[in-house]
Specification:
273 residues; alpha/beta; Rossmann fold; eight-stranded mixed beta sheet; 10 helices
Length: 273
């Protein structure tokens, strides 16, 4: 037992068919051992683990948020990860971007991430996406995946990813962190439900960045870990994902708030549906 946490009520899995883009099959002995602590979770079991193995997830951004997200999804056995980033590793990244090390400075983040994740779990498939994500490329990528985890650091990419997810009607797990403040929200991509642009109709005149304002290193670990948790819940049908709920964290005071979201009829991405 890790950490001495008292017994908690088990979550009940929702009825849902496997998302399978890689094909099914029985778990082998090595997989049963590797994922044993996960398989024993009430409501997950072998079927839930197989759903993870059969799933394909696009992770946009391999920095502070993308590091814990990618590492936990890889460790959990998500069968195929599409890793999108066109940046290179810089010394200033290493304070918080745990996918990368000192030896990776100057390498592309995608190449560095693949090496780290392959060493963590050689059982999964990793696919690099090193080009910028324009509308056409996002449309092709989102047709191949079960959900998208947005770990990027700019509004332009967030808006483009959101539009692609709405068009394909697939879930989007969105996270952000700046200074000591973090947020996570999950958008279902379904008609009548809010999307990212309902929350942020426009990016505003000036965008706040970690380079300008700084960021607390463990904060991105917390936010990215929540994003990975939400992705696993969606892929397996466990628990209640943060659909239409914005979770806000003030890490300086360790205070959480939750804001309910609603669909904006005037939203230019989803309002017309």
């Amino acid at each position: 037992m890790a950490g001495g946490i008292s017994s908690m009520p088990a979550q009940t899995a929702r009825d849902s068919a496997p998302l399978g883009l890689l094909g099914g099959g029985d778990l082998n002995d090595e997989q049963l051992l590797r994922y044993s602590r996960q398989i024993m979770l009430p409501g997950l079991g072998r079927d839930g683990q197989q759903q993870l193995i059969d799933a394909t997830v696009l992770i946009v951004g391999l920095g502070g948020l993308g590091s814990p997200t990618a590492m936990y999804l890889a460790a959990a056995g998500v069968g195929r990860l599409l890793l999108a980033d066109f940046d290179a590793v810089d010394l200033s990244n290493l304070q918080r971007q745990l996918l990368h090390s000192n030896a990776d400075i100057g390498r592309t983040k995608v190449d560095s991430a693949i090496d780290t994740l392959r060493a963590l779990n050689p059982d999964i498939r990793l696919e690099p996406v090193k080009a910028s994500l324009n509308t056409e490329r996002l449309a092709r990528l989102t047709k191949r995946v079960d959900l998208v985890v947005d770990c990027c650091d700019n509004f332009a990419t967030r808006f483009a990813v959101n539009a692609a997810c709405v068009a394909q009607r697939i879930p989007l797990v969105s996270g952000a962190a700046i200074r000591g403040e973090g947020q996570v929200c999950v958008f279902s991509g379904q008609p009548g439900e809010p999307c990212y642009q309902c929350l942020f109709p426009s990016q505003g005149e000036q965008e706040d960045t970690c380079e300008q304002s700084g960021v607390l290193a463990p904060l991105v670990g917390i936010v990215g870990s929540i994003q990975a948790t939400e992705a696993i819940k969606i892929l397996t049908g466990l628990g209640q994902p943060l659909f239409g709920r914005l979770l806000l964290l003030d890490a300086w005071n360790m205070e959480w708030r939750e804001v309910r979201l609603s669909n904006d009829p005037a939203c230019k991405i989803c309002g017309g549906r």
